[in-house]
Design a protein that fits this description.
Strand content: 15-25%
Strand order of the largest sheet: 3-4-5
Number of helices: 6
Largest sheet: 3 strands, antiparallel
Order of helices and strands: HHEHHEHHEEEEEEE
Shape: globular
Low-confidence stretches: none
Length: 191
């Protein structure tokens, strides 16, 4: 994701809103042909936890990255929510003592399984209008729809959705979510 990485970094640092970052994602998706590689970090990009080592932020940012159209990569240590960026050229083991910190292993397994759904490969991705520092992304394919809602504020937010009443299960938390024309979002992504 190097072509829009400066925007992703500014978003992760809190210098721009997630909404401004997603404008760049949208522009990028309109210009590329083929599959875009996505990552939240790699051998020369800081760990997401190094920007803000908080459970909600790390899980929201990781989930958002996986939800955006493209192929995602897990970098060694993502499972630990590590802040340490290992060297690519020296022997530098991942510290596994925090294995599954913030339940990242479970989250990554869920996101990887989700990404294999055909809607993410062949569906139309639309970035919806949303409050500042809240991302709402919608995929549609034939009669199927999938929403991803990501809250990067430090408080509960009410978001308006263009859907009728639904009672669905959030695949991230496995909890029931009742949606009418609006929804209160908290500290976990809703997919």
């Amino acid at each position: 994701d190097y072509d829009i990485r400066p925007y992703q970094e500014k978003f992760l640092k809190g210098e721009i809103s997630v909404n401004k970052y997603l404008i760049q994602v949208s522009k990028q998706l309109k210009t590329i042909k083929g599959i875009k590689a996505r990552c939240i970090c790699n051998h020369d990009l800081p760990r997401v936890s190094s920007y803000k080592d908080e459970r909600s932020f790390v899980r929201q940012a990781t989930s958002l990255t996986y939800f955006i159209k493209g192929t995602n990569f897990v970098y060694a240590g993502d499972e630990t929510a590590s802040t340490h960026l290992p060297s690519l050229f020296d022997y530098d083991e991942v510290d596994w003592s925090d294995y599954n910190k913030y339940n990242m292993v479970d989250l990554l397994k869920t996101l990887i399984a989700l990404k294999k759904n055909v809607i993410f490969k062949d569906g139309n991705m639309e970035i919806m209008k949303s409050p500042t520092n809240v991302a709402i992304i919608k995929y549609t394919l034939n009669s199927s729809t999938c929403y991803g809602i990501f809250n990067f504020t430090s408080k509960r937010k009410k978001v308006t959705l263009d859907i009728s009443s639904l009672n669905v299960t959030n695949i991230i938390t496995n909890q029931n979510v009742e949606i009418s024309d609006s929804l209160i979002i908290k500290d976990e992504p809703i997919i």
